[in-house]
Amino acid sequence: MGTVDGSDRFFLYARRGAARQASSLIELLVVIAIIGFLLSLLIPSLKRSTDMASATVCRHHLRELGRSLDMYRMENDGWLPVAAPVMSHQLRREEPEPWFGKLYPTYLPDPMVLRCPKDPFGYRLATVSSRIREPVVADFASYGLNNFIMTIGGGRLGQIDRNAPRRPLDTILAADLGPDNGETAVRSGTVPGPSRNDSLLQWSDGFDPFAETGISPWVTTRHGDGIHMLTLAGGVRDVRTKDILRTPIKKSYSRCAAGGCTLCIDLKVFHYSFAKDQLFWWTGPVPPD
Questions:
Q1: ∠ Cα 110 280 72 (to 5°)
Q2: pLDDT of 142-156, one tens digit each?
Q3: Which of 120, 170, 217, 238 could serve as 207's disulfide partner, Cβ 3.0–4.6 Å?
Q4: Is 36 helix (H, G, I), strand (E, B) or coil?
């Protein structure tokens, strides 16, 4: 039986060490692969949980906003906060006071209720919360009021108690408001961000998915494939808007007209239709201007 000399013993130990290192490397790679697999399962789940939490906060904010508007209406002879022009010393011209400025602080003590956690430009409101009544912040809310109610008939539709629609449960009062893209400074002296029509929902903002103008619609897909809408009756609904952004706006829709939509039946004006979710801009008579 042969003996193992020093050089053979060295190579034997070297081979054993290399084998142990290779085994350790394989084990490390296996552990890394398992961690990567677990993260691939966990990260989407965490994102879904975060998105669900943000959506819940958004619905809560809209309900709080609805309660504030109800309190304002009850104490102001049935009127919603129709914005009256005020002099903006910063802009050096008359501008409408933001409608939410009439709610703060009596009816809406916390102005951050106007901020949706998924709004990429929500930070604008946080920077000017102490100036909530000034015209320069009119575009900063994450939510907009139904501009049809606020302006049609010389603003007289804002007297909801007198001009109630036939379907208040299905009438849009407020909703998530975009655009959620763009970094253009829209008013002198304000933080950059998109124009939001003084935080009002326009029934048609000129958006055409097939036009070359590149208009960014206020309708967004802030919460997955849609937005949240508040009705005159205080309910909050999830509304799918992804398909709306792929089709041209029309003057009349069969389902919308069947629901009693005033814009389809009487006015024949271009408008977004949310009839698939049983929601309408207005379902009643319109006072003359």
A1: 30
A2: 999 999 999 888 888
A3: 217
A4: helix
